[in-house]
Design brief:
The protein is an alpha+beta fold. The chain has a domain of 59 residues: SH3 type barrels. It contains 1 helix and 5 strands. It has a 5-stranded antiparallel sheet with strand order 4-3-2-1-5, with no helix packed on it. The longest helix has 18 residues. It is rod-shaped. About 13% of the residues have low confidence.
């Protein structure tokens, strides 16, 4: 269930024009009221309308996502550098190779001899 509350900033679903169009409009709206599954939203221009909660999506600003990534990087700095690259060494920690199929000639080609043309 979508939990949309009053004062949330949301994006409004738009009509699909072609396969490249986005599902939601890029204009953020503010939720001014809620009654059951219906929300009243107002744009920054002051235009208000009512929609079902399935037609809106909570807006996540870019500043929140960067602060989360900064928090993760600060944790990694405290623990020290982490190397996640595979070097391919033949130590005991290496990844075992995949099984390889045994290749052999078919029985009807056993008497076949290859001739080389020498000039």
């Amino acid at each position: 269930m979508i939990l949309i509350q009053v004062t949330y900033i949301v994006l409004l679903k738009q009509k699909k024009e072609n396969k490249l169009s986005t599902e939601f409009q890029s204009i953020p709206y503010e939720v001014t009221g809620k009654h059951g599954d219906e929300v009243s939203i107002t744009s920054l221009d002051g235009v208000s309308c009512r929609r079902n909660v399935t037609d809106v999506k909570k807006y996540r600003s870019k500043t929140n996502s960067t602060s989360i990534s900064e928090d993760k990087s600060s944790v990694n700095e405290d623990t020290g550098p982490v190397s996640e690259t595979y070097t391919g060494d033949s130590t005991g920690d290496s990844v075992p190779s995949r099984p390889v199929r045994n290749k052999k000639l078919p029985a009807h080609l056993k008497d076949y001899e290859l001739y080389s043309c020498s000039t």
